[in-house]
Amino acid sequence: MAHLSPTPVLEPGQDRTMILNMGPQHPSTHGVLRVLLEIDGETVVRMMPDIGFLHTGIEKTCEAKFYQQVVPLTDRIDYLCPMTNNLCYVLAVEKLLGLEIPPKAQWMRVLMNELTRINSHLVWLGTHALDLGAMTVFLYCFREREEILKMFEMISGQRMMTSYFRIGGLALEPPLGFFARVRDFAGRFPGRVDEYENLLTGNPIWMMRTKGVARMTAEDAIALGASGPTLRGSGVDIDLRRDMPYSGYENFKFKVPVAQEGDVFARYMCRVRELRESNTIVQQALDGMPEGPIKADAPGVVLPDREKMKTQMEALIYHFKIITEGFAVPAGEVYQAVESPRGEMGYYVVSDGTAKPYRVHMRAACLANLQTLPKMCEGGLIADVVAAIGSIDIVLGEIDR
Amino acid sequence: MALAPAITDLEQLKDHPAVARLLTWNPAAVTGVKFDRDEMTIYIDAAHIRETCALLRDSPACAFNFLSDVTCVDWYPAEPRFEVIYHLLSIPHRERVRLKVRLDSSSPVVESLTSVWPGANYFEREVFDLFGIRFSGHPYLQRILMPEDWEGHPLRKDYPVEGYR
Lengths: 401, 165
Hints:
Shape of chain B: globular
CATH topology of chain B: Beta Polymerase, domain 2
Number of domains of chain B: 1
Number of strands of chain A: 8
Oligomer: heterodimer
Order of helices and strands of chain A: EEEHHHHHEEHHHHHHHHEEEHHHH
CATH architecture of chain A: Orthogonal Bundle
Strand order of the largest sheet of chain B: 1-2-5-4-3
Radius of gyration of chain A: 22 Å
């Protein structure tokens, strides 16, 4: 982070170019991103993103917590898709433990993850359109997002920092009326996506601002470590949900939208189509939701039900032990990756056999995606920098951790 | 909760495409292997890491063309103290492999991968910032997350959680 230094990191070239500082407090940087631009007139010659303003040391904090206590920290990494982070972390620890998760919990995780993806893409779509001057879309997107946040509140008690998944299952049974509410939403949602598309997809101003802007080839995208819609927008067909399934994604049928052009419009189309695909996954999850327990049968790891605690001595002892001294996890290491709305979200968890993780590392999709920005913007216009930043859908909380 | 024990015998794992490719190239580069919880780990000699990665990326049987992640683990006070960990993904084969390099605390230096994958840039800067590992040949090895005048490397195990007061 170079924010303490009064001297810019980039040195200006002779007389032709100047250094322009964009951010960190700039509405189009989606958080606290500072971008140093070397410009020649309106053209960007060089570009350097500067990050670290939101660094809170979450990885260090994790090392001082019990395994279960890390879950609320993972929410706060990427605050637009808390459930995806929860899922990735609990999957990693469950793999370390060798736990088997009951089908209902797996399907609930898929359901909640796809709602989270819709939620995250809606924020992206609204703010991206707002950056490029389309105000109305923002209001429409936040109308639907509000409904999703209310569902989150209904199921977990929290609108944003949900912490709904637990190592070994879920925190709570879904409340009465939850599925009916989700079904109602999923039935209406494709019509709402049509509304957004009517406003943007064929809109001449939108096309002029996005088509052919901030191009990136597939080779560059792979070499720079881009993932998710940023990679698929350049024509690379990979989606971890389909290709390396986790948490029962192999039971769902969905398409993976890919676009070949590699420009802002291609990434936009990928994400908008993903909204529809996520909605079909939500509907499949509702239709096929299995019955059964929501927690794994692992008394030393999973907290017992309240009812059992009051009637069974053994359950009370387990409860006391898990709360006071956590549970030991066999030594080893696991890298678990999931497809977050932004790309490959990975958790690398190392255990030394104690009740606290020895090391938790998060592979932030945005950190790698951000590296593609200079490639996209150099040689383009300043106004297109805003479009490019919006199109890679960054969340600075995830980048800085 | 039955976990299969980890396999660390090179003989049993020499058929894995990545291991086989590395052994035919230079058996001295592979210092160990581990197959645990369905994940393959190959320990690489620190002097060979850049060539190893270029080889795994370019050979068609492996095609590990995507660098997922670079990170580090500090095993203080044991020696060799640091493990630098690379997670590679093969997009054509949908497969992962983990490469590990062990480094002494006296000279935590390893060759940078930025010439193989430009995307290693930020990951290596992060490891440098938080662990103090130096990557030789990196184009801009500066702090990335911490303020530039920060002292110490916070993710080292001898660095207190609450920081120095």
